[in-house]
Predict the structure of ATP-dependent 6-phosphofructokinase.
Amino acid sequence: MKRIAVLTSGGDAPGMNAAIRAVVRKGHHHGMEVVGVYRGYTGLIQGDFVSMNLGSVGDIIHRGGTVLYSARSEEFKTPEGQAKAVENLKKQGVDALVVIGGDGSFRGAQKLTQQGIPTVGVPGTIDNDIPGTDFTIGFDTAINTVIECIDRIRDTATSHERTYVVEVMGRDAGDIALWAGLADGAESILIPEAPHDLNEIVERLERGSRRGKKHSIIIVAEGVGSGVDIGRRIKEKTGAETRVTVLGHIQRGGSPTAFDRVLASRMGAKAVDLLLEGKKDQMVASRRNQIVGLDFEEAFAMKHHPDMSIYNLASILAI
Ligand code: ADP
């Protein structure tokens, strides 16, 4: 294996740069050339490659986003698009590819392996929703951003004795809401994986108020529904002042935490090791703090579940 390529695809996540850096530096450590591909699969189809030497990934470990840019490509989902991508990789003399992205990107990676380009995946998404890995790159940074925002909201919530509803990201997975909710002592956490009862939430609010609580925080994962709508319904039921904050894309940016930088460095390096061992059609996974290779097929057969013990604990502690 002489020459490998790396790209970032799908939704970006803080720590992707640290993963790119690890792939480039680990590749060079083993005497390989590394090329970057701009804008994910779009760049593969357009032949948008850049040679990456050791210096090209200097000063990026602490930066959010991705220096290779990211994109979604409908064309890559077609056999013609994939054929163009394979042709460009062969023209560039690329022996193998590392795809940093979410599970959609991994489906694309599998197509490339099937067409003769050994490809491995590195899980990068703030949602932590990739089956087979305990953590994804970017999740820790996102929950730290969320709790920083909620700490600020809590200050003003206390001053004005209000209920705040905070909508966080997570269309299908409640992990961000769950972890941030426990870390922030939220009164209620609404996630797509668990049913909620608005009457029970209101009772909880009223119990807290009787005990002298000055404010309440309710965290809603976007997959449950609109935070604005839930805030309005709570206000109708309680008659109390209720404000809503939708955190939005603030959660996707920012300098990665130490945890994400370490995870990304370990995962990027492991991707190179897997390729050197002749592995393909695999993703890198963090399982019980071990960084391992896992067959895409095995991962695709699994379903991601958030840790419901955290949900139950948060409910007990936020009485
Ligand atoms: P993520 O990787 O964050 O889950 P997407 O689901 O949008 O993001 O996937 C990123 C890109 O991966 C898509 O734009 C597409 O180019 C490619 N992709 C997704 N699913 C497939 C598939 N089934 N076959 C081939 N390519 C796919």
In short: Residues 139-160 form the longest helix (22 residues). The pocket of adenosine-5'-diphosphate is lined by residues 9-11, 41, 72-73, 76-77, 101-105, 107-108, 111, 125 (CB under 6 Å). The chain is about 45% helix and 20% strand. The chain has a mean pLDDT of 96.
